[in-house]
Amino acid sequence: MFVRTEHHVAYATMFKAVRNYASVFFSIDLVLSFGSLDRSQCIASAFREVLPNIRLLNCYPHLARNRGASDKVGLLTKKSFYDDDVAVNIRYLSVARSEEQFKALPRLFVDYWRSEGEVGYANWFEDTYLGSTWMFWYYQSAIPCVTPSQNALESHHSTIKKTCVASLRSSTSVVLNDGIPSILFHEASQLFQQSLYHFSEGLLCSESVENAQRLLDNKKNYYKLKVPVTRVLFGVLFNATKFLKSSKNVNRSDLDRRRAQRYLNSLEGKLPEGVTVRNAERYCLSIHQVKLLHVEPLFPPPALQLSRYEQFIQSVRRKYVCDCVMFAQTGWQCSHVFAAMVLQEEVSLKRLLSALPTRKASGGQR
What we know:
The structure is a single chain. The chain is α/β, with parallel strands linked by helices. Helix content is 46%, strand content 9%. It contains 15 helices and eight strands. Strands 4-5-6-7 form a four-stranded antiparallel beta sheet, sandwiched between helices. A two-stranded parallel ribbon has the order 1-2. α2 links the parallel β1 and β2. The two termini are 40 Å apart. It comes from Phytophthora nicotianae.
């Protein structure tokens, strides 16, 4: 569904129509947990009117680019402070591992900005992007495969314009009148044969498997979390790529009990003593945690089968969850989960690569 104008009434009417027709056609009371937008007050207020308990995800790519945090760069007394400090701190916040950690780290960063004389910018950023309405722009603010980003939607809109109208700068009314009707007619005339899933069912990223192998090459790259009495495994901590234990890595760090506990405390919002803006990444963001939601074996035993690929993915999602960006984006695959599966002796990386279709990481040639 689409609206012709950026107005509260238009969006509220659209959201009400969606809920109404969900009831009419599917006999369900549609209640959404998340809504995605780009810091638009009219959309936010419409969401709140129709779905008062919804969590609004603010688009991080827009925040990080020139329409977001750099909007008020004129408030800075030193223009270089944005690239040297603010942008770096914002990137750290986007990969915060928990809501409690996200709430604790900004106090450290914003206080530092103020101490450097950037009071005006610090106050604006705190009021705008750390308040209750627009604070959910970090990757762990939702559930796996629901991310605070409008990029996919904008790419879809761009494709519609390239396909159906003459110009990428065509007005909304032209797109609605000339493009959308033909798309809707085409889609309605096609029988839908494929199932829809709440994850990226695409190919296995071979780079993630390779990174998993690097994690497993040195036992000081991971730390197992076990229940004290029963010794049942409930999670595994892994070094982030930047801090991988390797002879060629100048940032390498042993993942021992001390680092593990410091990290786990930060997840609860308890920042370690001596933390500063310069070492915050090493102290709080140098580790990823894979949680085991149960201890039953993965499906399908005894071997991976391409015909059961989607069932295998569902099985992984039911058992593992990781706090890294890739897991948040794909909903199931990342190097840390693959490494945890190997440590559990559920699969070998060689079998994983040979049994499932793979792809290279996205991006241009290096």
